[in-house]
Each structure stands twice: as C-alpha cells, then as structure tokens.
Prior knowledge:
Two copies of one chain form a homodimer.
Chain A: E1 2-7, E2 21-26, E3 29-33, H1 39-45, E4 54-57, H2 63-66, H3 69-78, E5 85-89, H4 93-104, E6 112-116, E7 122-125, E8 128-134, E9 142-148, E10 151-154, H5 156-161, H6 168-174, E11 179-181, E12 184-186, E13 192-196, E14 200-204, H7 211-217, E15 222-226, H8 234-240, H9 245-254, E16 259-263, H10 273-282, E17 286-288, E18 294-296
Amino acid sequence: MEIRFLGTGGSIPTGFRASPSVVVRRDEELLMFDCGEGTQVRMASCGLGLNKPMKIFITHMHGDHVLGLPGLIMSMSLLGRTRELEIYGPPGIREFLESIGRILGYDPKFPISIEEVRAGGAVEGRGYRVLVEAADHGIPCNAFSLEEGAKREFLPERAMELGVPKGPLWKELQLGRAVSINGRIVEPSQVLGELKRGRKIVYASDTRPSEPIMSLSRGADILIHDSTFDDSRAEEAKEYGHSTASEAASVAKGAEVRALILFHLSPIYRDPAPLLLQAKRIFPNSMVAYDSMALEL
Amino acid sequence: MEIRFLGTGGSIPTGFRASPSVVVRRDEELLMFDCGEGTQVRMASCGLGLNKPMKIFITHMHGDHVLGLPGLIMSMSLLGRTRELEIYGPPGIREFLESIGRILGYDPKFPISIEEVRAGGAVEGRGYRVLVEAADHGIPCNAFSLEEGAKREFLPERAMELGVPKGPLWKELQLGRAVSINGRIVEPSQVLGELKRGRKIVYASDTRPSEPIMSLSRGADILIHDSTFDDSRAEEAKEYGHSTASEAASVAKGAEVRALILFHLSPIYRDPAPLLLQAKRIFPNSMVAYDSMALEL
C-alpha cells in the first residue's frame, strides 16, 4: 500500500503546494481523497494511471477540494477509461458534476456512480471499508477512515511441513479453501498465522480538532490532519474552521495514532518548519506532507 | 506589450503542456485568452498578479479552456482583489460561473461583469479593441483579434526645437492638448510623427482553418493558431474541429501575418518538431508555443 500526496496546500494553490489530493494505492485499486484543481496532471506524473479501479472520496464542497474533478473525468473519458468510477462526497457533489457536465456538454464514456455520504456511513471495498465521520468545518464536511479487515498471514514454512508443494495449492489455502494432499486434508487454519489487524489511514481535512475525529482516528497507522496554521494564528484557525499544528498533534496524541501527517498548510508557510516544531512538541512522530511525497505502508 | 503563454496544450493537460491560456500584458492591464485548469498557479509563478485591471476572453465552453476560471476567481477573492473583473465568452459562460458559484457557495468580494459575445462583436479598451469572429469548431466558438488604435509617436527633438522644455508640458502635448510657451501656442500635431498603426494579435484556438479567421488575421503581428495535429492526422483534425500545422501555416500565409505561433498541440506530441517543420515549409516565420514562453512586442 502506498500513499501519494498529490497536493498538500490549503485554500490557494501555489507552485510549492498544490490543492489537496491524496491517493492510496492498494493492490490494483486507487482510493483518492479530495481532488483539487490540477490533480489530473499530478496523478499522471506520478504514474498512477487513469483506467484503474478507483473510488474518489470528497470531504466538502469548497473549490480547492473539488475543482479538479471535472477535468479528471473528462481526461479519463478522452483516454478511453472503461471501468466504473465511484465517487463519494457530501450533498451537492452530484449537482456539481451534473451541472458542469451539462453546461460543458461532456458525456463520459464510462459509468460513474455518485453517492452522497454522511457521518455514520460506510463504503465497502474488497478487503477494506471506508468509514465516514463528520468534520467540523462550518459546512457539511466528511472525514474518512480507510480500515483494512483483519487478516491471517500465510506461513509458507508451515505449508511445506504439511507437504503442500508451492504452487496453485498455496493459492487455494490463501483463499481460505482446504486442499487434499495424497488423500489427506489440509485446512487453511493450519497454514495461517495469528489474526492481525489491518492497516488504518484517516484523512481529516478540513476540520477543527474534534472528539468525533479523535474517535475515528483511534489507533490509526497514519492520521492525515488539517494543519492550516501555526499556533500564532489559533484565532484564524478557529474562525475559518481549521486546525493549528498543535491542535492536529493533540488529536494524534489523544487518538494514539502511529504517525501524524500535517496537511492542508496555508500558502503563507513557504517554510513549514514552525508547524512541524509545534506539532512535535506534543506528538513526536509528526511530519509535514509535501507535494509528491510517497509513503509505503 | 508582453505575451505570456501560460498553457499551450490541447484536450488533456500534461506535465509538459498545460491547458490553454495566454495573457497579454499591456501597460498595467492583463488580457487573458482562455483559462484552462491550473491557470491561476502558472499566472502567479509568472508574477502576473491577481489585482490588476483585467479582461478574460473565453473562446468556447470546452473544459480545457474554461475549468481554471472558478479557481482563479476564488483565489482573487481570497487574496483581496477589489477591481472589477471583466469576462467575455460564448453563450453558457454566465450559467457556468453562476452555477459553480452557487453550488460551491462562493461570493467574490469584487465585481465581475460577464458578457456573452458573438461574431461581429467588439470589446473596447483604452487604446485598443478586441474584435470577435466565429471560429469553426463544431460548437459556438470565438476567435479574438486584439488591435491597438493607430498612434502618432511623440518627437522629443521637435518639442525641444519649438522651445517646449521637458516636463509636464510634454505630457500635455502627448495627451493631445496644445500648450502655450511665452505666449506662443504649440499644437500637438507639431510634435507628433506620422500616424502608425497599432499592434495586432490574433488568438484562434480551437478552429478549423477558415476564411473568417484568415480575414480576422489580416496583417496581424502575431497569429496564435490551433495546431493540434501534424499533417499525418489531417482527418482527425477535420473530425474534431481542429487544424494541422500546415493548415495553420496556410492561414498565416494567406493573412500575411508577421509571425505564426503554433498552439494547442495534442498531448501526443512530446516533441513538436514535426509540426514546426511542416508549418515552416508553408510559412517560414512559424514557431511552436511552449509553456511559460514570453514574447515582447
């Protein structure tokens, strides 16, 4: 699983921080969170491809989080995408896409499903689900938690001991089906290790620090959290429904996540060092997202 | 006068050619032609500024020519623009901007005038006008000709001979007002050279080669013309309402322009050399636009 930060800036895109978009690549599927202006170009330059199975999750209907969507859809269609594209967003997302499509007269040549989601909702995927929680941003705004199902690891040495040769029979066991070796049955449970919880990534942009977000983030491997301002601008953060670096760090600490990624920085921070220092004081395993940053998980 | 090519590619933006947008900086005013996705960032990185007097001319309602407009307007508002922004485009431009504004809930803090223009229309500016002609692109599509008024050049040495000292009196004469020197009247005509025609720049993207465009382009200093395909794809050019490099060159030759800029190249041309060679065979003073290219005129 790889997390790609295509854009990491808030409100106004700049040459050093594009509008928000994060893509999680999981097996062959892409899960995109937000789609600011220019996302399609950065997607292509990261080699992510436009004809993969894909779900797009939109937090809220502010331009910097959604204005890249029409162009992305148009380019996918021009480039011959055939697979369905699933879009999950707040109320308004359907009207937005349908209005623009009608006015610009484009009619994508692949199916698009649009679902308006709210706090408490969940989107099921193959081996994972995405939970929806309410962010605190003044308008309807979602935060998302991508959670893989618990899995038992396949133990090759155990399979060898039981006389199951490497090959298609291993695949059967991995898929949870018993196999027969010289009349003897080997059950999947005999070659699988302990149940291990799956990975968990939370995307919370834009938002004030909040109890529901902390609760959604409980034990996450990665928390990507609004960190629009440094602590000297706490009042602005409050006024505009954003978080400071310290507030993001407090959520990370309270939720006992493994790592915090400071995200959605205001364009006033050419140098993000102050935000990082402030966050690290509260939650040491903090880092600042930058455009094109990739994390392997 | 400076022409800045912010984006020069057709249909799908890439890392090497962004969606179309050209800005003419004339005195303190910016005249933008088309506004593809991502234009605002490239405008800022060219130092063009978001609070200048500005007119935006949109050719047609295809996404790659117009999807940068909402984000540009939002950023202008966030950055405190106060001046009116004038937008001239095809039918649909008003509904496009108003729908997106309503759905995304943004309400710019500066006045915006939107005028739907058609062939035969003209927009008057200070010392220039922009004529509108119909492009041939399958849907309503404008081409624009920016034409400065004819001007007489001020001759400082003539003013000196007539005893008018350098300073505010020169300004008066340049503004066309007579001045008095020791009771003697000096008329502006006495210190001005011959009438010289102003500069002329034509922006014709997207279009098939056509008589009306050739006529609009007559004697232009610069013709920026659709050149989506090389000659081997003449059928595609025809089918999609675009021009080949040779077709663009034929328009330039027929209209006796000074220079042709090949524009709106398909993303299939990582190397634009074939298009340039084909155009030069017909019209030697051809060049290929590239992103961030600046021309002084």
